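URGENT: need a sanity check before tomorrow's submission.

F., can you look over the Enoyl-CoA delta isomerase 1, mitochondrial record below? I want to be sure the sequence and structure line up before it goes out.
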Amino acid sequence: MNFSRLLKTTSALTSRWLCSGRFQSTSAAAQKLVDVSVDSKTGVSIVSLNRKPVNSLSLELFKEFCGVMDDLESEKVRGMILKSSCDNVFSSGLDITELYPHPDEDRFHAFWLWFQETWIKLYGSSFPTVAFINGHAPAGGCVLAISCEYRIMLPYYKIGLNEAPVGIVAPDWVVNSLKSVLASRKAEQLLTSGRLLDTQEAFDIGLIDKIVNNEEEALARSEEFFSTFDNVPKLARALTKQQVRKNEISKLIKNRSNDAKLFLNHILRPETQKIIGSYFKSLKDRKK
Ligand SMILES: CCCCCCCCCCC/C=C/C(=O)SCCNC(=O)CCNC(=O)[C@H](O)C(C)(C)COP(=O)(O)OP(=O)(O)OC[C@H]1O[C@@H](n2cnc3c(N)ncnc32)[C@H](O)[C@@H]1OP(=O)(O)O
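Structure tokens as predicted:
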């Protein structure tokens, strides 16, 4: 099966979950969780995550984001910049309330499939993608950033995959996305320590590509990146990118339901619930 078809194909079970209208947000029409605008100078689409206060990633946000990615694919956009509308936070990662306390199993299954779908669409997009990391990007926030092709970050924020210290093991498709950006040894160090790096450290190890001081500079640096493809036929660029990324994506597509079941079992374990519970409490207590 060719890769474009594989991208559209998923198991019958997965399709049933993704296509079902269950877990529809009642306020979806009222509040947009993902905004899209077009930079009139460059024709590039700017996609802003807009789930206040910290862009924690919920099932509804994933669904909306996937819809936006489908639109951008069919419009054959020149490129996309992913950023945040929240002050100081790009994304705080998965919404912990989707994981704790003891999530509803059906909802969690759907939540995980939509997280996978988001990664498949972003990591496998045909058009060039830039993450403008205009705030902290821990855990799932970092996953979004490393799924893009190029990363530009404002100073003094933190980025990394901080799962290990809270007793959670990142799935292999997350690990492999990191290994597509960093050499294996650096990726292992970052994952096993769970350390969050500041902007300068992230630049020094190659986790991000540029440091900028403001949005104007970010747009200029993004344009430099997009213009490197101006003389490359769109289709050849897209197929080449997918050629590089297809093994990881194909592996997940063939294993989606199992990956969701594995993670659900892990999340439902009393020890895991306890660890996430005390982590969440410490997050809330910080402000007291
Ligand atoms: C518990 C870990 C589970 C790990 C599961 C691993 C799965 C592996 C696979 C994939 C990888 C993805 C994993 C994840 O994304 S798990 C989520 C991990 N996220 C974090 O550890 C970040 C936590 N948040 C922060 O560190 C800070 O909030 C942040 C630096 C991002 C911003 O700080 P700031 O001071 O600006 O804001 P507050 O901390 O006051 O936050 C405002 C309110 O938002 C609540 N909050 C923050 N983050 C989350 C979240 N991820 N989910 C739900 N709610 C969140 C926070 O508690 C505040 O609420 P209150 O106003 O009610 O106090």
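My own read: The beta strands are 34-38, 45-49, 80-84, 129-133, 137-138, 150-153, 158-160, 197-198, 210-211. The mean pLDDT is 92. If you see anything odd, call me.
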